[in-house]
Structures are given as C-alpha cells and as structure tokens.
Design goal:
CATH class of the largest domain: Mainly Beta
Largest sheet: 9 strands, mixed
Number of strands: 18
CATH architecture of the largest domain: Beta Barrel
Structural class: alpha+beta
CATH topology of the largest domain: L,D-transpeptidase catalytic domain-like
CATH superfamily of the largest domain: L,D-transpeptidase catalytic domain-like
Number of helices: 10
Number of domains: 2
Order of helices and strands: HEEEHHEEEEEEEHEEEEHEEEHHHEHH
Oligomer: single chain
Radius of gyration: 33 Å
Amino acid sequence: MIAHDPRSYVRSLAVLVLAGAVTACVPFESLWKKESAPPSLPPPPPPPPEAPLAEATHRFVIPAGSDVIGRVQVTVARHEDTLPDIARRFNIGYDEIVKANPGVDPWLPGEGTRITLPTRFVLPDAPREGVVVNLAGLRLFYYPPRKDKSAPVEVITHPIGIGKVGWSTPEGRTKVVARVKDPSWTPPASVRKEHLENGDPLPARVPPGPDNPLGRHMMRLGWPSYLVHGTNKAYGVGMRASHGCIRLYPEDIEGLFDMIPVGTPVTVVNQPYLLGWSGDVLLVQAYGPLEDDERNWEHGPASLRKKGAKSKSPLWKRIVAADASINWDAARRVSATPLGVPVPVSIGHEVEPTAVVAAAPLVRNALPRGASWDGNEDQYADEKGFREMLSESEPVAQGSSVR
C-alpha cells in the first residue's frame, strides 16, 4: 500500500475550499476579463486670459478741440509690489497714485489688490507750447514743435517732484537757458546749513555719479538757481521734496534732454482744479491745493467761475458760453475728495468718481508698450563705463546751487 501524507491531504483540501469561495463570490467571466476603467473627469477649465498690456502713458496725440488725453486704467498688485513700484512702472508720481487709491497701504497694498492708475489728464489752462508745469498736479507737459501746422498736436507728460514747503518752485514764465550732461552740484550755504542741522552734512561740491542729486541730465532755467533735472532718488518724484527745482525720473529727463532745445519757453502754473472739454462734455480733474496755497478754494473748481468769466483763454470762453449746461454742484462734489481722476460734470453726463474707476479697463501689471522706462532701477548700472567716460571727457560743467 501507498502511504499518504496527512499534511499533503490537508493542503489539497484547503486549495479546494479557497477555489470554491472565490468562484462563489466572483463572476466566472471576471477571472479573465479586465476591470473597466473608472469614468474620466472633465478637463479643468482654461486659466482666464492675461490682461492686455497698457499703451504708453506718457505720449499722446491731442484730439482736435479736446483738452483731455489718456484714459483711467486699473491693474492688480502683486505680493511684492509697493505703490511707488507701480507708479514708476506706469509713469505716475507718488502723490498721484496715493490720491487715486485712498485706503490702500502705499508700502504693502497686498496681493490681488486692484490699483487705480490715474493715467488720464486734463491739460493745464496755458499756452500749448514748450514746457508747461502744473505745480498742484505735480506734472510736466511738453509740446514738441510742429514743422507742419496741419499735423496733429502731440504732448509728452511726466510726473515731477517740486519744491517743499518753504522752498517753493516759482510760478510764471521763463525759458531753458542751458543743458548739461552729467552735471556736478554745488550746494548753496543755506542748503548745506539745513543738511548739517539734520545730521547729514554735504560736501562743498558733489561730482557726477550715483551720489549726485541732479542725476545725469540737467536743464538750467532763466530763473537763477532753478533747474529741471533727474535724480538719484526716484521715490521723490511725485512729491514735494526738492529745494525748488523740478525733478523727473531719470528715464524721463533722459528722453526730454535731447528733445528740448535751449530757448524753449517754460510756463509754470498752479492749478489744483483742471477743467477741460472732451467733445461736448466738460470734465474736472481735482488734485486739491498745495499746503501753502493761500487762495480761497472753498468751492473747489466752482471758485474759478467768476475769475474765469473775465479770462481771455479759449477754454474759459467756451466754459462761459456753456455755463447753463454745467453742473457746478457736481464739480464741487468732485473737489471734496480729490482723486486726480477726470470726472464729467456736464448736465446729463455727471457720474461719481467711483463710477469712472469701475468702468476703467484692466491692464497687466507690467511695463506698458512703448514705456519710457526699461525697468532698470539703477541709472548707473554701467558704473565702470560711466567713470571711464568721465575720465576721457572735458571738465564737467557746474550745475545749479539749488536742487
């Protein structure tokens, strides 16, 4: 007889039991059919299209019969942005962007915060020739000469810094009398005294270079000691921070330097409330008066109504003729919270400043097309080449005593 191993018998029995359990629970055909794949999920929606780039915010063709250029726009702050960062990107000054965005922290606006770009401008009520500066708006306008008088009128506009309280930039009419590249600066005794009292002593002469507050381009005016120049502290553009001179971003003065010849007229006005026509609609752009403006502005732009009636300017002749169609109460309301955004005040066209901002197009938070700035923070990026250039040039002309 053949002896059987009990353990082998037990193993065979266990296999049979397991096979029976499996076939009882699982359909027979599933032993060779593959399990079907779960239903696929729909693809995620595509990301929203990127906002378009803004057009250049510094050079415009003035529409015939119009006093208004540009348009109000909106962008969205990134987490690393400050308002001065965004301002320079879009050729706006510090005070301009702060006024247009009340309640926004200038130094930490926050990721995703919508930022109003006040890039629409009512032109000052002044002759459209040469350089026009509006102190209250902290902005310069340059009207390039036209060889063909039938050609469209162009204007270039940039934010500026002006004299602080006690060192006011003068008003009136003068002209450019000299231009100097890479000027040195000789601070007057009064400025040196002020700096010494503040614990910031100045040398008798500051040579060209990164420490020169005049920057790399300077135009001397017919008013002794007053200049239009660049700066080594770009954050001061759009503020009252100078000793009377007119400061521009380095890239802006560089662009204007070769365009503005000696002899160009310069008109400096102080217009805190600008009125201008866009088609048949009158707009008001309210900046508010400077701290040391002693005129009575209790009624905002309406305060100009009686004075304007005596004015011989084409603007005010048109306003006087259309007086019955203007809502002066709306103009007064616009002045109550000056945002620096042009707002229509003709009867039937009145809107609140917030509505103007709400209707503004969204643009990408990046340099506009044709921007005056290339994004380079350092005007002396090529420091070695700059110093070599100085060593090979003629002695540098002296700058002004005031900055």
